[in-house]
Specification:
Elements: E1 20-23, E2 28-31, E3 38-43, H1 54-72, E4 76-83, H2 88-97, H3 101-118, E5 126-129, H4 134-147, E6 150-153, E7 156-159, H5 175-184, E8 200-205, E9 213-215, E10 218-222, H6 224-235, E11 242-246, H7 250-265, E12 274-277, E13 280-282, E14 285-286, H8 297-302, H9 307-315, E15 323-324, H10 327-344, H11 351-364, H12 369-386, H13 396-405
Parallel strand pairs: 3-4, 3-11, 4-5, 11-12, 13-15
Antiparallel strand pairs: 1-2, 6-7, 7-8, 8-10, 9-10, 13-14
Helix pairs in contact: 4-6, 6-7, 9-10, 10-12, 11-12, 11-13
Length: 409
């Protein structure tokens, strides 16, 4: 599966700062220093039955900033993202609408690529679907079966949560706290015959009317968590630098993924840090496909909204906060974009180098994009006051905003 085209990242003078970011598993903000010259990043992708709402866009914007900060600090970035192109929600939507599930997945994935291109999100080096990862999933599940970390139940294969002594270290939740969340987010704690209510599906035996593949595990399809593990291990290996996604993936998805990988390989940790973006709400509730309270990037684009304004709207909120979308958020972003573009039409002035330092410092401090935007606002206000009479490095502000914030002025 192919990703989307990369926009050019302008070169900036000097070098960026080390990234300090909040690690969910550690429970604190700490410096995440890649091992070697290449930073390894895995971000969980979409299930393509509706793409791309602003909750998605906010999450991918956060990890786009991670890439930009690392690149500015002199690292190469090996970024991997998956597409869950076979799963229950996708099949349910296809059945409800009378569509072929493969056609639905391909169409929504293509739309996602268009949205990411418009928003100038840097693409992953490897963009991999669940279906194409089955050849890596099967031997991984076989390993877990052989080691006793997995077991069969009526043709399905489950991971035994108790097989990993560190189970729970990513989310910090007790088993009692995990149970209701597991039931809400794709788990089946009440299924009879399981060794433990928190055991998660690795492989689903073929069901009538559902897609399935013939493998050494039997005819069936993969579970959700093992898909990401197989892809991450294939391209990044164990102990990669950062596992990312929305905060709704902390448990069970990232907790289970860590347990699967650590049990299969016998090594720890699966990821060296876990970073999670907050949720975007609408009308008092988190944007979700099940609720249907969604604002789509593609719909805003069709209405003529500049993608740079959409991106500024996302950047105006700290990536870890939950926030509510309304029209005023977009109106403010449109006004800000116009002010910035007017300001960069004048000579930069000597304050441009100071602005670069301020934006670098803000983003290196737990991706504080609101502080970075405020710094550019102050620079733009000074430009308006002095008319841009002082000569400085031509275009440095434009390059700073483009390279570090992904906004083309």
């Amino acid at each position: 599966m192919h990703a989307w085209p990369a926009s050019e990242v302008p070169a900036l003078p000097g070098q960026g700062l080390p990234l300090r970011i909040h690690d969910t598993a550690a429970g604190c903000t700490r410096e995440v220093v890649p091992q070697g010259t290449t930073a390894r990043l895995y971000v969980c992708g979409i299930t393509p039955y509706d793409a791309t709402h602003l909750g998605h866009a906010a999450t991918y914007n956060a990890f786009d900033l991670v890439q930009r900060v690392w690149k500015d600090a002199g690292y190469d970035v090996l970024y991997v993202q998956n597409v869950t192109d076979v799963d229950d929600p996708l099949l349910e939507r296809a059945n409800a609408t009378g569509q072929d599930w493969t056609v639905l997945a391909e169409r929504e994935t293509a739309l996602f690529r268009e949205d990411m291109t418009a928003l100038r999100m840097l693409p992953p080096a490897h963009y991999v679907g669940a279906v194409e990862s089955i050849p890596w999933i099967v031997p991984l599940v076989q390993k877990l079966l052989v080691s006793g970390a997995a077991y069969r139940l009526d043709g399905d294969i489950y991971f035994s949560a108790q097989a990993d002594p560190r189970f729970g270290e990513v989310s910090g939740l007790s088993h009692e706290e995990m149970l209701p969340v597991f039931a809400e987010r794709g788990g089946d704690p009440e299924r009879a015959g399981k060794k433990h209510p928190l055991d998660a599906l690795l492989w689903l035996a073929a069901r009538p009317g559902e897609p399935a593949w013939d493998t050494e595990l039997g005819r069936g399809r993969p579970g959700w968590h093992i898909e990401c593990v197989a892809i991450a291990l294939e391209y990044l290996g164990m102990s990669f630098d950062l596992q990312g996604g929305g905060s709704d993936l902390v448990f069970p998805h990232h907790e289970m993924g860590a347990a699967h990988a650590q049990s299969a390989t016998g090594t720890h940790p699966y990821a060296r840090s876990y970073v999670h973006a907050g949720m975007v709400g609408l009308d008092g509730h988190k944007m979700s496909k099940s609720r249907g309270n969604l604002v789509f990037v593609s719909a805003l684009r069709r209405e003529g909204v500049d993608p740079a304004a959409i991106r500024l709207a996302l950047l105006s909120h700290h990536y870890r906060t939950d926030w509510e979308w309304d029209k005023s958020v977009l109106d403010t972003a449109v006004e800000r974009l116009a002010r910035w573009r007017a300001a960069v039409s004048r000579p930069d002035g000597p304050a441009a180098e100071q602005l670069l330092a301020e934006v670098r410092a803000a983003l290196a401090d737990d991706l504080d994009s609101p502080a970075a935007l405020a710094a550019v606002d102050r620079w733009a206000a000074r430009q308006e006051q002095d008319g841009g009479q002082e000569m400085g490095a031509p275009g440095l502000v434009s390059r700073t905003v483009d390279a570090l914030l992904g906004v083309a002025l």
